[in-house]
Amino acid sequence: MRLRKKPWARPELEACKFVVTNPSQYKGKWKDFFKNDNEIYLELGCGRGKFIAENAVKKEDKNFIGIDIKDEVLVYAKRRVEEVFAENNKEINNVALIPMEIAFIENIFDKDEVSRIYLNFSTPWPKKDIIKGD
Description:
The chain has 134 residues and is α/β, with parallel strands linked by helices. It has a single domain, classed as Rossmann fold (3-Layer(aba) Sandwich), CATH 3.40.50.150. Helices cover 28% and strands 16% of the residues. The protein has helices at residues 9-14, 30-34, 50-58, 71-87; strands at residues 39-44, 62-68, 95-99, 116-118. The chain is built from 4 helices and 4 strands. A 4-stranded parallel sheet has the order 3-2-1-4, covered by helices on one side.
């Protein structure tokens, strides 16, 4: 899928209280961000946010962090979280979304800070020309 540049995406993300644009400041201190000691579940490549929104609204005793590199996709995850929580008449207090390259996650989490990692349908998919034997 080709993404078109959405110049309005970054300002919308930056205006959101649960989007963290400077996540390294919370390394070892995510409990301060969430204001609780709940376990952290991390989704790498959260895309448009269906998984994180539906799980976070059901599991209020867990904190969910979703990371994606593309603002153009993450803005839809933000909206999905807002929509699902509104439909369930709940306040968003256990979700954080982070626009960043997942290769740098060691800069934002301390050892044992994350309890569970989800990797659902992330891209890029391997190309045939780079797979040996194809």
